[in-house]
Amino acid sequence: MLVVKSIPAFNDNYIWLIHNKQGQCAVVDPGDATPVLSYLEEHQLELTTILVTHHHADHIGGVSELKRAFPNTMIVGPKNDAVAGLTHSVDAGQQLDLFGERFLVLGLPGHTLGHIGYLGDGKLFCGDVLFSAGCGRVFEGTPAQMWQSLQKLAALPVETKVYSAHEYTSSNLSFAMAIEPGNPQLQIYREKVNQLRAHQKPTLPTTIEQEKWINPFLRVEIPEVVNSVSHRTEDLSPQGVFTALRKWKDGF
Fold first, then answer.
1. 19, 29, 32, 111: which one is catalytic?
2. 199 is in an annotated binding site
3. How far is 200 from 22, CA to CA, in rounded Å?
4. Fewer CB atoms inside 10 A, N or C side of the chain?
5. Is 88 part of the annotated catalytic residue set?
6. Catalytic residue at 128?
7. Nearest-angstrom CA–CA distance, 155 and 167
8. In the structure, what pLDDT confidence band is assigned to residue 1 with cuts at 50, 70 and 90?
């Protein structure tokens, strides 16, 4: 099993650091090199791999500086997303080896057209697609694409740990409570999240199982969720409910 640590960046980003017992490590979506370099120096780790999920600046801003500090670093990223400086462009369905564990590349368009995720060792690094109690905005793709990407993630084993790139859980839960106030699991989870954040602890990783209990974007067939958007859309199919939820959340 690989060890994963969170490196906070900016206001609410997490740069995920994955390391083995030999002092080698990878980082996921390093938007800022400074906290990564500090962590590596403090813990005497060698950076060998950078994994990128998509091209937004808060996910790739530190890549070039890290490459200068560790010239032999392999930089892996989406083939169909505009990420400069990649040494390995990967597409959905490809696999890569990371410290003896096999990771599968998942195509997850919607937030950006070429967004990908990395799945291996019971862990999912999904960038800005799935958040705890929420999902990413649809910037370049379509709601249908984002819906299909979320369906792909919902089909993963329930014990899969989900490493999202942002600490959005508290604000997402406010929206989730407005959508499904009768969900007791939401109330329990909100208390847990409030305690964690009061002590400045991360709410991530979450799990696919947890998200199926509390995330409205994965619960679009639950009657209370459907009813919550029935005045906003005539399309009450799962994809239609998702689309109405996402539009509502954009202005929430």
1. 111
2. no
3. 30
4. N
5. no
6. yes
7. 23
8. confident
* Residue entry with tokens 């989730």: 176
Q: Which of 19, 55, 115, 166 is catalytic?
A: 166
Once rounded to an integer, what is the mean pLDDT over residues 93-117? 98
Which residue ranges form the domains of the chain, and what is each CATH number? 3-163 (3.60.15.10), 169-250 (no CATH)
The Cα 171–Cα 134 span in angstroms is: 9
Q: What is the pLDDT of residue 149?
A: 98
Check the CA dihedral 161-165-170-172 and report its sign. negative
43 annotated as belonging to a binding site for a ligand: no
Cβ neighbours for 114, distance < 8 A, ≥ 6 positions apart: 54, 55, 78, 79, 80, 81, 82
CA distances (Å), 94 to each of 15, 97, 104, 165, 208, in order?
23, 11, 6, 22, 22
Torsion-angle region of residue 168: left (phi > 0), alpha (psi -120 to 50) or beta? alpha
Tell me: the pLDDT tens digits for 126-167?
999 999 999 999 999 999 999 999 999 999 999 999 999 999
* 159 SS3 class: coil
What is the rounded average pLDDT of the residues 81-101?
Answer: 96
pLDDT band at 98 (very low <50, low <70, confident <90, very high): very high
Strand, coil or helix: 64: helix
Q: What is the largest CA-CA distance in the chain?
A: 57
- The answer to whether 115 is annotated as binding is no
Q: How many distinct helices (H) and strands (E) make up the chain?
A: 9, 14
Q: Report how far apart, in Å, the C-alpha atoms of 158 and of each of 62, 108, 112, 134, 186 are.
A: 33, 18, 25, 17, 18
* Model confidence band, residue 82 (pLDDT cutoffs 50, 70, 90): confident
